[in-house]
Design goal:
The chain is mainly alpha-helical. It has one domain (about 5-270). The protein has eleven helices and no strands. The chain has helices spanning about 5-20, 25-35, 35-40, 45-65, 80-95, 100-130, 140-145, 165-180, 200-220, 225-255, 260-270. Helix 4 runs parallel beside helix 6. The longest helix has about 35 residues, at about 225-255. It starts with a helix and ends with a helix.
Length: about 270
């Protein structure tokens, strides 16, 4: 089936959003590069804490959200603004507490990260469901996680997601292996090397935790941390909502025309 003009316009818009990060995210990437030395100067204990906490949260966040998304329940598209307000508020609170003792700051940051990631994933899953995804399949669940590894292209983005379809193919290979083993949903321990999704999951954790580490370094700045935490959280969720809209629009078109046809058209679009 030939891709219609209407759907081709949708694909062009999706690629534009996928390739071009927002002004706010460009600003955060620029700041992130500037405070890179600050991340490196974080105590090894905190760096390890960030990676371990990120891994733990990402292992659970899809399943936690699924508990409140009843299969077969009429879908009502929620307001993305609600999620933005929630994560901005948690970022502000975490940042101001982070200016206190290291123990309080670390605990506040952990709580902020858990809530922020939960709400970010919930809005990603809502967008996916609105584009026709069956969230009770391992494929849809893992593609929701993949959104956290999508970054677009900019000179301040460190080459994030240099090839959208290359990353898609790598993840699909992992999903196919899991399906061959009869896996119906995300396994309890995605970070186990015996898990067929381990390599793909590790890539997502690495991409997401690098941004989280920069966020941690910024929020440890006294007083400024509160404002920074709120701004970064707002930027995060706005960015990932945009990536989710693009990613699941492309997948929606692939279900209609086939992945090969959409990929071929995608690669011919010059921006």
């Amino acid at each position: 089936m030939k891709i219609t003009l209407k759907d081709e316009i949708l694909l062009i818009k999706a690629k534009q959003d996928m390739m071009n990060v927002s002004f706010l995210m460009k600003g955060f990437n620029f700041i992130g590069n500037k405070i890179e030395s600050g991340v490196e100067l974080l105590p090894k204990k905190i760096q390890t804490f960030v990676i371990e906490k990120t891994t733990s949260i990402l292992e659970q966040v899809v399943k936690v959200n699924l508990k409140t998304m009843n299969k077969g329940k009429p879908f009502k598209k929620p307001s993305k603004l609600v999620y933005k307000t929630l994560v901005t508020s948690t970022g502000v609170a975490s940042g101001f507490l982070g200016a206190g003792t290291p123990v309080i700051g670390q605990a506040a940051f952990a709580a902020d990260l858990a809530l922020t990631t939960k709400f970010i994933m919930r809005t990603i899953m809502d967008i996916a469901r609105g584009r026709g995804e069956d969230l009770h399949t391992i494929e849809a669940q893992f593609h929701c996680l993949q959104v956290l590894a999508l970054g677009g292209h900019s000179k301040d983005d460190d080459g994030a997601d240099s090839s959208y379809y290359a990353s898609r193919i790598a993840i699909q290979t992992s999903i196919n292996k899991a399906s061959e083993l009869g896996v119906q949903g995300l396994l309890k321990s995605l970070s186990s090397s015996s898990n067929p999704l381990y390599i793909a999951f590790s890539t997502i954790v690495a991409r997401f935790s690098s941004k989280v580490s920069e966020k941690a370094a910024a929020q440890l700045i006294p007083v400024v941390g509160g404002l920074t935490g709120g701004a970064i959280n707002y930027t995060f969720i706005s960015h990932f909502q945009k990536m989710a809209e693009a990613h699941f629009t492309i997948r929606m078109l692939e279900r209609k025309y086939g992945m090969e046809a959409v990929q071929e058209k995608y690669t011919t679009i010059v921006l």
